[in-house]
Write the structure tokens for this entry.
Amino acid sequence: MAAAISALLMPVAASCQLAKEKAPATTTGPTYKNEAFVGFGYTSINQVNQSNNGLGGVSLSFTRDFGRFYGVTAEGGHYLFTITHANPTSPTVDQFLVGPVLHAPLYDNLSIFVHGLIGAVHTGNISIQPDYSFAGGIGVGLDYSLSPHFGLRAYGDDIGSAFTLTPYQSGDSPHTHWNAHAAIGVTYKF
């Protein structure tokens, strides 16, 4: 009798131990790890005396993703066009910055990112010595995906640097100037 009951219950116990097969994962397409950006940029020039205007120019960046939400960005820019003619001189600004970036999707094709950057800023065509300064800052931006490869980007950040207040002052300057920086342009993922 005991053997008959265990024989009847055996298939039920054995079927409870089987794992159901998982559905195959759906892929949405290839994952791109590199991203290039080019666009129009703006920077204020608070390190230039008697300057009440900013400069426009080109902003470039390259991002390498190391995960779904983080990567490293290298950013550069050359700004030489005065927005209005209120500046007493015609300065130029070059930026070379690198740092980590965190990004996350917001809604459908829209995503947000935050980056922290450090590097150097060069101010040219004016009498500031030294004309290079250590720089760093933080920024936030939005990406809108147009296709798997192309997208639009708009971002802004605040870049701090230490230039002298007096022309031809030797040595480092303890004076920190914060320059607003913004850019809008296109991205290409590959």
Q: What stands out?
A: The chain has a mean pLDDT of 85. The beta strands are 34-44, 54-65, 70-82, 92-107, 110-124, 132-145, 150-162, 176-189. The chain is about 10% helix and 55% strand.
